[in-house]
Amino acid sequence: MDLPSTDNLKACLPKDKTDDDQRLENLKSNLRLAYKLAAKANRKSHQNNKRLYVRKAKPWEFKVHDLVYLYNPVFKPGLARKFAKPWSRPCQITNKTSELNYEKLDLRGKRQVVQVNHLQKSINPKLWKHELKQRPAENMPRRLDKPQNLKGNSQDNFKIGP
Length: 162
Fold this sequence. Notes:
Helix content: 25-40%
Oligomer: single chain
Radius of gyration: 34 Å
Number of helices: 2
CATH class of the domain at 67-125: Mainly Beta
CATH topology of the domain at 67-125: SH3 type barrels
């Protein structure tokens, strides 16, 4: 049994001494041919994928005052993606800004322009209860100076023993 040696790992050059320029031209022509074949295969694959997509694609049209859900795949860190809800609460379409963009109004009164691919029509009109809520900063102080006790004296809550 012969063991491999470093002689077997060396590049094998052709025995006939061809001109370096000729080898370079052959390499260039082979690369051009490979590039053309790859580009042709890429175009053919793209056309096939487009044909398959268009066959199943449905154009989405929304009217003003339609209820939709907004797709937002971002979720809070620490939560399992498995339990995350990528579709937000229902929003209402307020304006069509272009063929692909719509302006939506959410339940908090926030307006946002979103693309049609991020919207899905809602079928339950009872979900829309638009209420503009006041911000908590206007109603309450930002922090409490003293802890509030609901049961009178705070020492009563920490009694130990009978």
